[in-house]
């Protein structure tokens, strides 16, 4: 069993069992953002977390070590995503990419926002004109230094 | 003069004059995120905004109508960005893309987060372990409906 | 069973059973455009719709939750489609893309035509010189706003 | 002067002069859809049409034969368009491509909708929930025949 | 069974049985060009033709409706073909593409040669310096018209 | 002056002077297919041919040796052509590529149709249902031999 | 069984049996270059050669006709090869490509070196500073001719 | 002046002056293969060689240091070359790539043929059936070693 | 069994058995860098090494000759890697590529650092501000020589 | 003046003046690795460093603010580099990418080696069998943490 097969198994079990990611996150005791990414094969679980996930999705025993192994990351089948929801995020990078760059450099100087020392939160923002998706991202600024 | 030439002119004037995007935003009276994107050729200014921008960057007269024309958007030279700062955002889409998808669908059902009816805020988050970049995004949820 | 396998199962059952999309749409009670897209793995059915589709195509029980799950959208195997019928639509985007852009901006200002709050109708237009395909698309205009 | 330079000249003159495509179309006496495409370097004008366009945009004399020459068509700089408005049309092809294919074949048999013997109309559709873009396309059906 | 699997089945049966395309075409009663394309998954057979093809290649019953269904066309695994014989045709398009364009426009004006209302003939042309492949193509000219 | 600049010069002169490729071919004394390809930078002229071409298009003296130099061939800006007329030829390769391969191998064995020892003829084929483009290609068959 | 499966079967049998290409070539009675290419699915064997190959690698009966069928050529999984040994040959084309072109045209005029009427020999060249790989290629020059 | 401009200058001077690569090589005193590559911007000349090349092509003084600077190598505008002569070499890599790999490994073990410690010779091979291009390549074998 | 299947088998056995690469390297008696690369299908083992690897991972008998066969190298599924850890190395090549080039040429002249006669060492570098990854690479300089 | 033009100006001045990167680094007072990258448009200089660089390369006044502005990074014209020296580094990523991944994860757990908090040193390693290029890289390990 490789990680891609395991992810497909989890997704199928989730659909078949009508399990929500929020419930999985509650039982694992971490954010729904991180737990979902982990179940989708992008993060590494520890033994306790893996055991809970195996129980929730009724996974076979050999899933345990696989969930605890660092996966080959990257969740999309094409460089430019075709799914409309995911494409909108790609579009934000395409349209606002140079804006991100200018404003972060203006505030912090040369460097990047870490995508590793990073956390995010995704929630519903009620709005009379139609509810909104609110995403808060927080990544450590890492400066380039001369040497 | 086309928009790409105008953007390059603005960037050169900004560098030469030591102008900050925050100052430009203050004088235009809007967020630094939107104003920077507009100056970088991704948004459309109205006449008043264009006049202020022309004055700040000392742009020639024929820049006025160009700034008020809807640009061909997309700020990056390659589909996968090479610049490390911008790449990190692409990496977030690559790693967390399916997570965004799962969690938004779980909360809202089938649909997308709009990248048009969208606003964002980028700020410094002080942290003793090293300051962080905090980005808050808000996009209207747009549901797919059957018909 | 994942969605791609389910779609292939539906297509095979449709061919084997000589079922028409118009009939499926009639029984589901929605437009043939939306119903076909849903059966081809691009839209999400509700429980009642899924039950009808399962019955029509004699699908196994575990197809029910899969049909009600939001799919990873994008129906084509390559970025530039090779199928001549589908390519003609890509060609329209290639040739008329900037025309769409100019005319929509002239009429509405900066923004887009939604591909989500969208419906369409495809019908035969009789013509003595050879019948024509008539497609009527209607998408909500979504304006970019400054903030 | 090649066609790309001429198109850029027209676009610049249009912006500088505040000319609308609807006005150009009125003076040429054809639809705004075809006239805009022609001015953007995708269609071929005859001598009378070229003369009107040259006058409207105050083009030099050597623009006359260029406007009457069949252009190398394709209006977009990349295979997958980056501009959000144009991308939405690409997304429709990506998501609905197989639906177009199924429904046209169901109605007409094997063949295509011509993108050459084709006309379209783009108009505002008032709607209390927000006005809509309405596009009506009509292309001759061309059947594949065995031989 | 999908069309790709069916095509592979036909090719295997043809090789195993030492069947020639010319024989298949004779029995179907159409040109070898069209019949070969149909057997390779590019054209749609009617019921009679499908029955003959099934008999020749000893195909299972469920091949019948598949052969009568319009296939997703495009016979090559890569955009630029790697097979030397097929590449030479791609090379002709690459080298002579603009020549085709100039000469057809010179003779017919703006428009295209139809690849749908199209037929071709491929034959041996005896030549003392080495026999030649002679291909005669005939496609209806389809003019662009203003509207 | 490089060959690309020279080609653009010839095309501009042709448009400005209303010169036809057929006329150029007549004066050069060869087929319009070869002469057009040569003028478009795909073939090599000898001194006499180059002199005639220079005179027809009123080219500067330093065009003479450039026209007699073997060009870097390939006339299209993208691997998959965007121009509808040229795309149709690419589509023929995509749809009929494996058919070409099967039939040529059936007739000749393993080998290719030469794209070098090759000639073609493009003419109008009158037809009451609409005139047709008729293209006759003849390429020497080159067999693979074991060694 | 298709050709790719057959090639994989041959490679596995070769590894398992410790068979050398030189031995295969000896028994087939042709050069090791051609025989290896043929076994790897790039050339077509005749009945006698196929029988020998089947015996050497202990292939099933249905391999016989497959080996005698012209394969879809192209032995590499990506357009730019990732394997270091094969990449070096690609690099030679990349670095020396224009040199090949200049020198062949200088010696022969416009035309190509045939990759069909082609043979090559690969041998060890002893050298005190480290043995060398010596490759001798010979391809017929094919001139472009005007017509 | 950068190296690409210098190469274009050399090529133009060569064409205008009717200079042959063989003559340049004679005067530089090295092989025509290396000298041509160097003049085309792929190799680095020493001061004496650069002086001779400057004299032959009548290059400006600032060409001297540029010719002595290591260039950014790679002589082709696209990853898959469009020029037929150069493509044939790419085709040899595509068709024979795995053959090169198998035979070199069989003779030498794991490693590569160097494309750096490499020399080649390109000559005319007279043949009554049509002269041939003979290319002899010699590259040092470099073994992979465990460590 | 092909090499890719064998690699997947090794990786699964390693995860299931909780085996570390350092242990494998110890038992093979070589560096962990080379041994890991070999187990991941990038290097060729000799008989003794293969026997040890087979024992450690409890591989079937037919794995022995496969491990001793030179693999088709290249360990990544896409040209630009999506995995964040591996991407950082690609980014170093992208950002520092021209710097590597300038400094190596300044020190050594025209040539390359061998990726074949190459060894490397990867270790933990303790640092109070957070431990660091230290990689030492050593590759033989191979000069281009004129000939 | 944009950064690309400035980089080309620096490179030209360096070649013309026979300046070495080691000298530039000495005068700037930092490592040759960082200084070269900065001069090639990949790093940001402070005012003092910029002044020194301007003096060394005799740059115009408006180069000063450009050198102090964060550049759009990425030094290579293509995703897969064509230059042999730079390609070898890409090849190391391709061949050893999964090895880097396995060994770093084994030593440190899930996370990456920073390409930002990174320094490197490139030096000559004398060796009787031919001198070697020795590169020492040191990047901070950044762990993924659950949240």
UniProtKB/TrEMBL annotation, chains A, B, C, D, E, F, G, H, I, J:
Keyword ATP-binding: no
CDD domains, sorted: Cyanase_C (cd00559)
MF-aspect GO terms: cyanate hydratase activity; DNA binding
Residues annotated as domain Cyanate lyase C-terminal: 75-147
Superkingdom, natural source: Bacteria
Keywords assigned by UniProt, alphabetized: Lyase
EC code(s) of this entry: 4.2.1.104
Keyword Lyase: yes
Pfam families membership: Cyanate_lyase, CYNS_N
UniProt enzyme class: lyase
Catalysed transformations (reactions): cyanate + hydrogencarbonate + 3 H(+) = NH4(+) + 2 CO2
Active-site residues, Swiss-Prot/TrEMBL: 88, 91, 114
HAMAP family: Cyanate_hydrat
Family of the protein in this entry: Belongs to the cyanase family.
Functional description taken from the UniProt entry: Catalyzes the reaction of cyanate with bicarbonate to produce ammonia and carbon dioxide.
Protein name per Swiss-Prot or TrEMBL: Cyanate hydratase
Species of origin: Gordonia jinhuaensis
